[in-house]
Amino acid sequence: ILIAMGNVASSDPARGIVKVGDVVERIAAPGGFDAMTTGARFTGKRLQLRIALTGPARGGGESPPRPATLTADRADGAQRVFAGLWTCGP
């Protein structure tokens, strides 16, 4: 699970938390909210995370969910890929 937030029209980093396995870690990504809408690259103390959109939006509204993958690269070299939905917005 990854939860993050950033401010619209701000260059302040987006910040959040992620739980991968038994590890819960604080993360940040440059560019605020606007940079997260089409995927993102988050970094933490022991993790790097990449969100890659893999398909069109599902449904309507201001920010419908989109299929995506989350690739988690751990500091020890292990990598894991999770498929899910990327949802940005209110």
Q: What is the averaged pLDDT score?
A: 90
Unreliable spans are none
Class inferred from helices and paired strands: mainly beta
- CA-CA gap between termini: 18 Å
> Can you summarize the main beta sheet?
7 strands, antiparallel
Q: Describe the strand arrangement of the main beta sheet, using strand numbers.
A: 1-2-3-4-5-6-7
The best one-word shape is globular
**H/E series:** EEEHEEEE
Output the radius of gyration. 13 Å
Give helix % range. Answer: under 10%
Strand content: over 45%
| DSSP, total strands | 7
The tally of helices reads 1
Description:
Helices cover 6% and strands 52% of the residues. The protein contains one helix and seven strands, in the order βββαββββ. It has a seven-stranded antiparallel beta sheet. A hairpin with an 8-residue loop joins β1 (2-5) and β2. The longest helix is centred in the middle third of the chain and has 5 residues, at 32-36. It is globular.
Briefly, what is this?
The chain has 1 helix and 7 strands, in the order E-E-E-H-E-E-E-E. The model has no long low-confidence stretch (mean pLDDT 90).
Write the layout of secondary structure elements.
Elements: E1 2-5, E2 14-20, E3 23-29, H1 32-36, E4 40-44, E5 47-53, E6 66-74, E7 79-86
Keywords:
1 helix; 7 strands; about 90 residues; mainly beta; seven-stranded antiparallel β-sheet
